[in-house]
Design a protein that fits this description.
The chain has 189 residues and is an all-alpha fold. Helices cover 77% and strands 0% of the residues.
Length: 189
Amino acid sequence: MTVFLIILAYLMGSIPTGVILARTYGNIDLRKVGSGNIGATNVGRILGRKFGVTTLLGDMVKGLVPVLLARWLIASELLLLTVALAAFLGHLYPIFLEFKGGKGIATALGVFLGLTPLAAILAFGLWLVCFIVWRISSLSSLIAATAMPIIVGLLNDSRLYLVFSLIITALIFYTHRENIQRLAAGEET
């Protein structure tokens, strides 16, 4: 059952929400326009806010559903977090896009909504405040990702959850490495 859930989580995470929307409603290959990213920010820039929000929700759901299913079927915290990580890695390295995926923010939000909802809501609130102030999605995402392990550590006694949140944060920083360079140079849009 656990192996099945891990594979299912990875495959669900691999569903490229933004790519599907862009091809269906605009016959556009997201990887060749805008930032080249398949996530909600690029979809919003290319197709409009409605499609950006739809991508955000779709990417959240593909992180949330496997975690909720695993919570229902698995008693082990370690195996639950393994399923959560599989969903997240599916988004970053989707089998359907030759292992070249998104940056993981919305999928991580979905995963954390399933694992520790209050921490996810607080991190999203922080993202929203930062975005309103600076209007830079990547900066807001990096700040929220940095705060997530702190929030998880304060709200949850589990060391595994803390380690998991640190791994997710490290992966988010890795996927945002080009954004970080542009932020440092003052060139990020």
